[in-house]
Amino acid sequence: MKPKVYVTRIVHEEGLNILREKYEVEVWNSDDVIPHDELKKHVKGISALFCTIADQIDSEILDAAGENLKVVATMSVGTHHINVKDCKKRGIQVTNTPDVASDSAAELTVALLLLTTRRCLEGIEAVEKGEWGKWKPMWILGTESVNRTIGIIGMGRVGFGVARRMKPFGVSRILYNDVAPSSFAADIDAEFCSLDQLLTESDIVCICCALTPQTENLIDKAAFHKMKSNAVLINTSRAAVIDQEALYESLKNGVIHSAGLDVTNPEPLPKDHPLLTLDNCIILPHLGTNTSETRASMSINTALNIVAVLDS
């Protein structure tokens, strides 16, 4: 009998076809999150679970799957939705897809940066509301990237991708902070510095770091007050890196100029959330990896991770 693989969402066929060659594959036939109770029913006796970042893979799911479960493979970079500690205790491998989404995330970060600094969303809304009139010298004025200092928190694949893409825009300096200097940062003349220096000297701050105990609430009220009053903050990493309440107060009171977010807590953000009342805050619905190319690659890599574990 072939090992069973359960897939919690409709994903690209490229990955599913890899699995179907070797295993019995069942897919939750929806683009929506599978209810937790339904997932418990479907995982009984499986050898591998192909999940997404929206699925909560807790001890209840592991119990329901039983002793045949060998691998929980998530189609995401993050694994915070999985009880990794319990998986380790049970001898279940946990795999992710860290390498394929970097370009997509870096590209989205730059797009969000430009949307925010050039106030594009306000312009779109003005057109839709019929407010686009004759040329006005002081109407919806954004800021340019040329001759600005950009600070990047986390010079990993995404952070480097952002820096590399912003270099041709004519930024004057690229500062970065990480646990240690990066050897490839020298290729783009990026300067390693302390977090305090980055916050006080940067015109644009991009958060590209992983969420760890050290980075949780890294950008808090004190950090916002170190930033320039005309600074722009961009976060495409993890929402918990920022103290969201402090962000709201800082934007509302002019401590910083504006922010662009691709990540929030919670997701989706409630319609009545205070951040949505601010004109100087652009929020996207977590689009960092939303390209056909990246999602296909993530599907393939997740499938290959399952094969690597089950065939070992």
From TrEMBL:
SUPFAM superfamilies named among the record's database cross-references: Formate/glycerate dehydrogenase catalytic domain-like, NAD(P)-binding Rossmann-fold domains
Signal peptide boundaries? none
Q: Does the keyword Oxidoreductase apply?
A: yes
UniProt xrefs under InterPro entries: D-isomer_2-hydroxyacid_DH, D-isomer_2_OHA_DH_cat_dom, D-isomer_DH_NAD-bd, NAD(P)-bd_dom_sf
**A GO term for molecular function:** NAD binding
Q: Which GO terms describe its cellular component?
A: cytosol
Looking at the UniProt entry, the stretches that span the membrane are: none
A Pfam match is: 2-Hacid_dh_C
Q: Is Oxidoreductase there in the keyword field? A: yes
Q: Which of UniProt's keywords are assigned here?
A: Oxidoreductase
Tell me which residues make up the D-isomer specific 2-hydroxyacid dehydrogenase catalytic domain.
6-311
Q: What is this protein called?
A: Glyoxylate reductase/hydroxypyruvate reductase
- Give the species this sequence originates from: Lottia gigantea
Native organism taxonomy: Eukaryota, Metazoa, Spiralia, Lophotrochozoa, Mollusca
